[in-house]
């Protein structure tokens, strides 16, 4: 296949306009062909603003466009399941924003629908596609920091004054664990290469924000007495960091998930008595994500991260939310795909 993958965007969310659409455009194998909104004026205005050829006044109309190969879904979390399944039934490959669903069971239904339709499904954890995470895994595999003893991750920001934000609608999948806590959980699973056994989480639930978790701190237990400690929040100063502690050294990632240019993606390795800054190529991780997905559609490589991985991440989030609301340690039963 030589033609570019033609993308339709279902919804005019800020993340789509600010990051994902520009990323797709900077990629090699993709083009943005259409965008849809339930608000006709918003669809038209967004298409004109971003120079997108086709604007649709309904999601259904976009899915009926036979020229669209794949869709990106940045809708509020509670709509991910419905529109992923409807896109699959329309024969479209699906890149869906994180978290993939509201529960692991929902995520499994989405994966099954895509399998049945013969289309690909991926969760939009863009940071995983950045080359630095391959480099970090190589440092770990080489034994530079020894055996991993623990991982600590943070992802916080303060948007609490925006009371109308969809992040503060409990029934829509609002809350910090869904929005940003998913990142350090996802990263720990990637770097440790195993699924966790239990979660214990303490959270701040805000009556002024529809009862969602505005801040959460957690302990995720992994096999071999390893653990992730993390905190996430939407009512705190901005941070997004990751620290991997070994018995012989340390990896520090100052900007772990949201990256910058001019060295903003670099990380640090402390070992053998010295601390070294590891230079990382400045790339658009959204563009790399799009090209990885396109190559899988074209049959040139498998998906780097399959839908089963997203289901596994949702099981951990399910346990975290259960723990935070019940104030208890929750065991996690994972079902790894053969």
TrEMBL record:
Pfam families in the record: GFO_IDH_MocA, GFO_IDH_MocA_C3
Membrane-spanning residues: none
GFO/IDH/MocA-like oxidoreductase domain residues: 133-252
Domain Gfo/Idh/MocA-like oxidoreductase N-terminal: 5-123
Record has Oxidoreductase as a keyword: yes
Entry superkingdom: Bacteria
SUPFAM superfamilies cross-referenced by the UniProt entry: Glyceraldehyde-3-phosphate dehydrogenase-like, C-terminal domain, NAD(P)-binding Rossmann-fold domains
Record family assignment: Belongs to the Gfo/Idh/MocA family.
Keyword hit for Oxidoreductase: yes
Entry keywords, A to Z: Oxidoreductase
Protein name, as recorded: Oxidoreductase
Record GO terms (molecular function): nucleotide binding; oxidoreductase activity
Lineage of source species: Bacteria, Bacillati, Bacillota, Bacilli, Bacillales
